[in-house]
Amino acid sequence: MKYIERAIDPLVRHTLDRGKSIFLFGARQTGKTTLVNRLDPQLTISFIRPDVRLRYEKSPALLQGEVEALAASPAGKLPLVVLDEVQKVPEIMDVVQDLIDRHVALFLLTGSSARKLRRHAQANLLPGRVTVLHLDPFGIKECPDENLDERLLDGSLPGIVGVRAPEDREQDLAAYVTTYLEEEIRAEAAVRHLGSFARFLELAAAESGGIVNLRKLASEIGVAHTTIGGYYQILEDCLIAERVEPLSASATRKKLTRSDRFLFFDLGVRRLAAREGRRIPRSQWGMLFEQFVGLELLRFFRSRQRAVKVRFWRDPDGPEVDWVLDCDGTYLPIEVKYTDSPDAGDARHLHCFLSEYPTFGQGYVVCRVPRKTKISDRVTALPWQTFLDDISMVTKATSG
């Protein structure tokens, strides 16, 4: 499979060209290693291997000697050093800071979790010394695909997109969930009650995209609601779940939802973690499509470092809007409908929102129409394949 240009590739190159080191976060198998190898680093150290990890845990200063030896060669520019899965050896960060401060080398640090770094009492996150970037699974701008249903079922991890047979994709996703979610995350998070966490993982995946009810989940699993909150924090820290906060300010509504939503970072991983098969009831396709659009919005603005927050709006007694883009207090409401023939009914909550908040003056319905379609004077239906183009154009002037 040929290399597919990632949305953050230009930003990575630009950051290194101006002499700034990078901390590249991303869940496992999102393509960090492939991206990094194309930069032709002078030294790569992977802390995935236990023997390598042990060597630097025993003597972090070994890195200093290796990098200084590289810098002594007449290359004409600072060497690029890659440390893969650096969160596994948090002690190494002080050495990295010293080498950055003395302009000995440029570093590209990769990590699939910030949890161990944050939990380590002396962990050094290199504030002000590195640019933090995030690599997600493929977005539709990176890897266009007309088969929406496959995206909803199998997600878009690079290693899955290139697999043709559905049964092979199923096997690979199952392996991901077993070896990564159920083993590595548990080990890194030091979960005491593995059975409770395993049950939580299944329920959290099944309820991905919904409003989180900590007490309900706690009751089902038989743990304290504070424990459930901690479990969600583990998923966030390990880059498996995305927290989406509600828009809760309103001059006219007092009952707006204030609880968060969580989205699993990949729909294929979500489905396997929830132990769902490929025969998803048609009644659930709308829910999956809504999550798909939410993930695409998060990925798009994050990869371009645009100051746009993705939120949602919900009044339990009235209207709701699936996604709201918050551009410094100016809002763009977006509804998601798994239909190819949207009508005025699909736009009614958007009109309600547009009348109550400072907005760009328009709203959108993302759906399966073949081309852009006007629903009303203020609402337009957009094809899912290209909706980001229109939304980016509208928000660009405000978000920079």
- Provide the number of structural domains: 3
Shape: globular
Distance between the termini: 35 Å
Strand order of the largest sheet: 8-9-10-11-13-12
- Please name the CATH topology of the largest domain: Rossmann fold
The main β sheet shows up as: 6 strands, mixed
The CATH superfamily name of the largest domain is P-loop containing nucleotide triphosphate hydrolases
Structural class: alpha/beta
Radius of gyration: 22 Å
- Percent of residues in helices: 40-55%
Helix count? 16
Average of pLDDT: 91
* Total DSSP E strands: 13
**Which CATH architecture of the largest domain?**
3-Layer(aba) Sandwich
Strand content is 15-25%
- Top-tier CATH class of the largest domain: Alpha Beta
**Low-confidence segments, ≥5 residues, pLDDT <50?**
none
What are the secondary-structure elements, in order, as H or E? HEHEHHEHEHEHHHHHHEEHHEEEHEEEH
